[in-house]
């Protein structure tokens, strides 16, 4: 393209940092006591921005080695995998080390996700029920006053996995973005449908393990290629991709890899990256409620939407080290176009077409728990299981199956690499702008 016809897409550039920003030491945010459950104090974090309104946040800091980007991704203590500071309901509270999450006694279902996604491979996650069904106390009921009538409610929990788009004001398993295990009879839940698998109640002290198996990112990208070329959100037809079609993928996540569009902001004196969040799509929303409304009538759909799935993917349930079953198989795909950021994809009339969004590295399945009326759950952040499953011991010891606690180091490496790539891209765009101005 001739120079006089070239153009540079307008970019939001970061505001230069100050000496005060450079000298600021990262510290754990203020913790405000909210509730005490089983002698464990849970806290609120009022000085942090919650992921909402289509935006998400993560800590950042000035970095003089990144000449154009100027800020690098970082984390807040305690360092490691834990329940997220940002990705949880505002009425879901955490322990000082962020390993236990729960609600107040008067709250209904609230949820939280962990801070690091599982994107590929085999990973084992452990949860421990801290407050919930108590086999030693059948009367562990919480008294609630509602319209001057005395009611009783027992604390409950649900455990599972969820994607970024899943609701945090509803229990895991509520929608198509999450897969849950109930504490009552160990029932499984997906799309709000409960299935009895012949289990028993999951009680206080029980250790629940989930083995997550996902295909490689290479295979997942092949699925995304076919979905993009066939313009479908369901399983694509398995046919060979022609060479001429590859040009249509030039500007998609397939060739770009991880791509982030975030800007540093200040919130209550601290620095955070703000970025568009992945939001619920109309197709997945319709999956939860498959009806079409005509005036005052709602008619069930004859042909229901079936989201694209990941071949070979599954969730295997372990209770106190014993394998119970494989409650979920063929998990839904999460790479675009299966996930989208609505805020960035709309035409002048506000209508959203079939969109091919970016993969910013946060897509995947997250350990997720839900609490009801004082329920609480702890996540294992270590590199070793609390209870080693006999079926998995050899594969865990040789690293064929990774403990979830090891994901933190992988995330640090990914953030450093992507920060360097982002800075290199920004430097290139800066040079192009200067050339065109001259």
TrEMBL record:
Protein origin, superkingdom: Eukaryota
Q: Which organism is it from?
A: Pichia kluyveri
Record SUPFAM superfamilies: Concanavalin A-like lectins/glucanases
Q: Which GO terms describe its molecular function?
A: transcription cis-regulatory region binding
Protein known as:
Bre2 protein
Q: Which CDD domains match?
A: SPRY_Ash2
CC annotations in GO:
Set1C/COMPASS complex
